[in-house]
Amino acid sequence: MSLNWIRGLVILGTTLLFSAASMALPSQTLQSGQEYRLGLISQVLEDPSQSLTLADVRQQDNWQALTSTNANFGFSRSAFWLRSNVQLASEQLPNSPWYLWIHYSLLDEVTLYRCAVSFDHSAMHDEDCEELGHTGDIIPFAQRIIPHPNAILPIALPDHQPYVLYTRVYTQGTYQLPAVVLDQPALMEQLLLDNLLRGGYFAILLVMGLYNLFIFWTSRDTNYLRYAAFVLSFLLFNMSYDGTGFQLLWPNLPLLNDYALPLFFALNQLFLCLFVVGFLQLKENSPTAYRFYGAMMVVCLLFIIGVAWLPYAFLVIGQNLLSISVTAIALLLGVRFWWQGMPAARLFTIAWLMFIIGFMLANARSLGLIPTNTLTLFSYQIGSFFEIVLLSMALGQRINQLQTQELSARKAMLNSQADAIRYLRNYEDLYQNSLSGQFQLDHNAVIIKSNPAWQAMTGDDQSHHKNNERRAFRDLFAPSDLYPLWQALEQNGHIQGHVAPLLAQGDTSQTPKRLSISIRKGLSGEEAAWIGSAQDVTEKYQQQQALIRVQEEKTDALRQLVMGVAHEMNTPLGNVQLSNSFLADQLSECQFIDNKDALEDAQAHIQIGIERLKELTQLMKQAVLLDNARTQQSIVIRDWFHDWQGGIQALYPDSRITVHIHTFATHWHCYAFALQEILQQLVDNSHLHNQPENNEVPPLRIDITLREQDDHTLTLHYHDNGIGISTEEQGRVFLPFYTTQRQKARSKGLGLYQTYNLITEVMHGHIHWGEQAGFDLWLTLPATIE
C-alpha cells in the first residue's frame, strides 16, 4: 500500500515538474474510450528546408501552439513537425494499444517518433527516442502497418511515464491533418463504420455508372453516356482522393499517386462539362454558356496533357478553381432553365445545389480557406450522394419526357401521314383536272407523267403509255426553241413563261399551237428531275400578231404618207428654188431699179423658207426608218458603250454622262445603228429642254444603266436630273411633230417619234416611264447575248 502511494506521488511530481518546464506544451493523459484531436494537444514547427532531423527539432524553441482542432496549413514547400506530450492514465495497462489516425490520405510522408522524458538538475531532456512508424503515399502500400487508405500508426507507451510524440509530415499537396489519437477498441469500431460507408458509397457510384451505361445502350441517348462517364470518373477521382485506389488498384506503384488525382480530376471535369452541355441543350438554349463550357473543356484537356509535366500544386489549385467555376455556372443555368419552365431543370438544380455545396466546401478546405472538420472532410461524399440520386431521378424524368414526346411525335406523324395522303389525293385531283398542262420529266427529258390538259395540248392519245413507250420532250418543239430553254434551266434551275410553237402533228395546214412553258428543277425526294406546266397561248399570240400587223399597217401607211408628202414637196420646192435663183440673178444684174433693197430682202426670206422646207423634208425622210437601221451586228457591250460615252461626252463637255453595265455577257447581237440613234436622240432631247438660264443651275447629269434580266432581256434605264416631263405630256411626246421647243428644236418634233419607231419596230422593245424626278425612261429590249 505504501509502495503504491510512493509510486503515485512520483508520477504526480514528475507530471507537475514536466508541465512547469514546458508551459507552452500541453500534456494529455490518455483515458480509455476517449478520442483526442491532435490539434488540441500539439505544437507545430515549420521546416522550410525539409532537412531538420529529430535531434535538430528537439533543440528548437520556436514551437507554435495550434489554434484549430484539425491542423490545415494549405499549400507549402516546407515540412512540418508536430510535438505532443502524452502519458497513460493510471488505470491503463502498460503497452496498451493506442493509434494516431490521420483522416487524409494525400500525404507523401508521415513519420511518428516517441521520446521518453528524464530530468537533470530541474531541466527536462528528451532521450531514448524511437521511431514508431513510417507511412505515406510514396511508400508501397504493403509496407503499411495498418492496411488502410489513411495513415494509421501505432503508439506504444511501455509505462505510465510522460512521453513526447514527434510527428513529421511532408507532402506536395495541401497540408491537412484531421488527426486523432484513440485506443484500439475505438479504432476498430470506427474502421468498421468507415469501411462500410466507403464500400457502400463506391458501390453506389459503380452501380449508377453501369446502370446509366445500360440505359445508354438501350436508348442511345448520349446524355446517359456522358452522365455514366461523369459518375465513373468521379468514382476514380474519389478512390484516388481517399487512398482506396492506391490500396486496391495500384498498391505497388506509389509513383502513380502523383498523377492519378489530377488526371481523374481533369477527366471528371471534362465529362461534367459534356453532361451539362447535353442535358441542358446549351447549344440551342444558351449559345453563350455553350461557348463557355467549350472553353472549359479545352482547359480540361490542357490539364490532362499537363499532368505529366506541370507542378502538382499548380494542377491542384488550377483544377479546384476550374471546378468551382464550372459547377457554379451549372447551378445558375439550372435555376435559369427551371424558371423558364424546363421540366428536368428542377431536379437538376436541386441535385447540383447539394453537390456544389459539398464540392465547394471540399475545395475551400483543400485551399486552406476553411478549417477541416467532419462535414468538410466528407462533403464530397455527402454532396455527391444526393447529387447522384437526384440526377438519376432527373434522367428518369427525362426518359418519361422523351417517351411522351416520342408518343406525341408518332401521333403527330400519323396525323401528318393522313393529312399528306389527303392532300396528295386533292393534289392528284387538281393535277388531273387542271386547265393548264402539267408534266414531269426525267433526267433525259422524257415525259414520265402528264395530266389530260397537257395531253390534249400536245395531241397525245395515250398510246405511248399503253405500250410503255414514253415521249421525249424534245420531239414536241424545234431545237431552236429548246436551246434557250435548256440554257436557262442549266444556269438558273428554272424558267418562267418561255413561249414556243409545237411542231406540227398530223395536219400541217393548221396553225401550230404556241405554249407558254414554265419548268423548275425537281426537289430532293421527288421522282421527277424537272417539273413543268404549260398554257395554250395560241389565241393570245394570234391577237398579238394581229395587233402587230395593225400597228405595222399604220406605220407603213404613215411612212407612205410621210414619204409621199416629202416626195410631193420636192417638185414645188425645186421650182421655188429655181425661181428664187432666177430672181436673185435678175436682181444682181439690175443696177438701177426702184425698191431693189426691199426686193433683195424678200428674196432672202424666200431662200430662208426654202432652206427650212429642205430641212423639214430631210427630217421627214429620216423619221422613216432607214435600211441600215435594220441591219444587225454583234457588238462588244462594254467597249461599244465606252466608245459611245467618249464621243457624246466630247459633244457636251458641260454635262456629266455616266454609263453603268450590269451583266456578265460580253457580246450583244443587236441593231447597233438603231441603238446609237436612240441614245443620241435622248441625249439631244435632254440638252434641248434643260439649258441653264444662269450659273446657279446645277450641270446636267445623265445616267444610263444597262442590266440583264432573268428572262434574257436587257433593260436600258435612261435618267437625267432635268425638269422632267409631266404625266399629260408622256402620252404625246412620241407623236410626230410634237415639241415644246419648236424654235430651238433641230428635229422639229420628229426626234422622239423616230426613237419610238426604232425601239418598237426595229429592236422590238417596250417603253415605260419611271417614277424618279427628271426624265426617267425604261426600255426593255429582247436580246441575244453571250
Walkthrough of the structure:
Helix 10 packs antiparallel against helix 12. Strands 1, 3, 4, 6, 8, 9 and 11 form a 7-stranded mixed beta sheet that branches. Helices cover 51% and strands 20% of the residues. It is built from 21 helices and 26 strands. The protein is an alpha+beta fold.
How do you describe this structure in short?
The protein has about 775 residues and is an alpha+beta fold. Strand 22 (about 700-710) and strand 23 form a beta hairpin.
Number of DSSP strand runs: 26
The number of helical elements comes to 21
Helix content: 40-55%
Whole-number radius of gyration?
54 Å
Q: Which parts are unreliable, with pLDDT below 50 for 5 consecutive residues or more?
A: 1-24
N-to-C CA distance = 132 Å
Spell out the key features of this protein.
single chain, 786 residues, alpha+beta, seven-stranded mixed β-sheet, five-stranded antiparallel β-sheet, 21 helices, elongated, disordered N terminus
